[in-house]
C-alpha cells in the first residue's frame, strides 16, 4: 500500500470512528389503527407525542401507512412543509387545489401536467411544497387492494414558498443493489428567484427538488448483497459536516433484515438515527434477511 493510499485510508477510518447508530425499533413507534388506516409514526404526529422524537435535522414526519380500499385522506390543508409520499404497494390517487379533477395522469411514468391528477403506483414518488398554502387529498380508489406507502415531511429552509408539486417514477432496476437518489436540494438554493422556482432544477439531475439541505435515497438490496450511501452526495449539500441520516426498513412482510455500518441490525419496520458522519463518508447497508430489503434513507443537515 502506498503512503498516499495508507493516509487516505487512515483518514476515512478516523472520520467514521465517530459513527453513532441508534436504532428506532418498530414496536416503539407511535401507532394508530383507525380501521381504514393503519399508521406507524417515527416522530410525534397527531395524538402520538414523544418529546424525544419531534424532528431530526430537517426531517419532521415519517409515517408508514396502509390504507384500506376505497378509503383515504380527504382534502386537507398544508403550509410551510415539504411533503412527499413513497409508494411501496397498491395505488394512491393524489389531488390538490392546483389540479383539475377532470383528468387522470395515469401513474407509473405516464406523462402528466399540472392540469392532471395523478394515480401513483409502486415506484412513484409524489412531492408537494405546501408553501403559502395548498389543499390536497390522498385516496385509495382501488376496489379491493390496500395501499402501502411512506408519508414524509421535511421543514423548508424558509416559509412562504410558492406551492407546487412534482411526481416522478424510479424504477426497481435503478434501485437494485445500489442507492438511487430520489430527492435533492433545489440548485438555486435559499435565495431562488421566482423564475428559478418555476424551473425547479435540482442539485442532482433526475431527482425531485426540495427546499431543504436534504437528500433522499432508496435501494432494493437482494439477500446476501449490500449497497453503500455516499453521505451528502459527496458535494451536493450546503452543510457538509455533522450530517444526520435516518434509515428506514419498511414493513413489506417479506422477511427482510439489514445490518448498518457492520454493527446494527434492523428488522422490518425498524429505523435508525445515524450521526457522526459528514459529506463524503459512506454508510454500508447489508441485506441479511430471507428476502430483498427495500431501504429508504433521509440525509439531512
Task: Summarize the structure in short.
8% of the residues lie in helices and 44% in strands.
What does this structure look like?
The protein has helices at residues 3-16, 172-175, 194-199, and strands at residues 20-24, 30-33, 37-41, 59-67, 71-78, 82-89, 91-96, 118-121, 124-129, 134-140, 147-154, 164-169, 180-185, 208-210, 214-221, 226-230, 243-248, 257-260, 264-267, 271-277, 282-287, 293-300. Residues 1-15 and 100-115 have low confidence and may be disordered. The radius of gyration is 19 Å and the shape is globular. The strands form four sheets. It has a seven-stranded mixed beta sheet with strand order 1-20-17-22-15-13-14. A seven-stranded antiparallel beta sheet has the order 2-3-4-11-6-9-12, with no helix packed on it. Strands 5-10-7-8 form a four-stranded antiparallel beta sheet, with no helix packed on it. With 301 residues, it is mainly beta. The chain contains three helices and 22 strands.
What are the main properties of this structure?
301 residues; mainly beta; 7-stranded antiparallel sheet; 3 helices; 44% strand
List the SSEs and their pairings.
Layout: H1 3-16, E1 20-24, E2 30-33, E3 37-41, E4 59-67, E5 71-78, E6 82-89, E7 91-96, E8 118-121, E9 124-129, E10 134-140, E11 147-154, E12 164-169, H2 172-175, E13 180-185, H3 194-199, E14 208-210, E15 214-221, E16 226-230, E17 243-248, E18 257-260, E19 264-267, E20 271-277, E21 282-287, E22 293-300
Parallel strand pairs: 13-14
Antiparallel strand pairs: 1-20, 2-3, 3-4, 4-11, 5-10, 6-9, 6-11, 7-8, 7-10, 9-12, 13-15, 15-22, 16-21, 17-20, 17-22, 18-19, 18-21
